Amino acid sequence: MCPAAAQLIVWESIIWRLYPPSRSYYVRKLFASLGRILFALSIVGFFINIGLWVFGELFMTGTKGFELQTLALLNMILLSFVLLREPNQKSK
User: For residue 55, what are the domain limits?
Assistant: First the structure.
């Protein structure tokens, strides 16, 4: 085994000891509700980015419109990873 792989295994074991999985009912419930809130905000953000992209196309000219459209598209790509998650994820 190479030294880098051994060091990675050591760091992973340290991290998992520092942050053990929580088995508390209230913590799991909190994270589930925060996940639902994040999903709802991601949907809203996705549609806001569609509006920004259309606004940049119709009302802005030159590089400002191009930059707004590019940022809106990149934002939509990043938000799509949240929106394409598996709906029934089971935690360990």
Answer: 24-92
Give residue-wise pLDDT tens across range 13-26: 665 566 666 567 77
Q: How many domains does the chain have?
A: 1
* DSSP per-residue letters across 16-67: HHHSPPP--HHHHHHHHHHHHHHHHHHHHHHHHHHHHHHHHHHT--HHHHHH
7 within a domain of the structure (yes/no): no
Q: Is residue 16 part of a domain?
A: no
Q: What does pTM read for this prediction?
A: 0.62
Are the C-beta atoms of residues 39 and 79 closer than 8 Å to each other?
A: no
- Position 72 scores a pLDDT of 92
Q: Is residue 12 part of a domain?
A: no
Q: How many CB atoms lie within 10 A of CB 11?
A: 10
Instruction: Measure CA of the first residue to CA of the last residue in the chain; give whole Å.
Output: 29
Does residue 86 fall inside a structural domain?
yes
Place of tokens 């196309």: 57
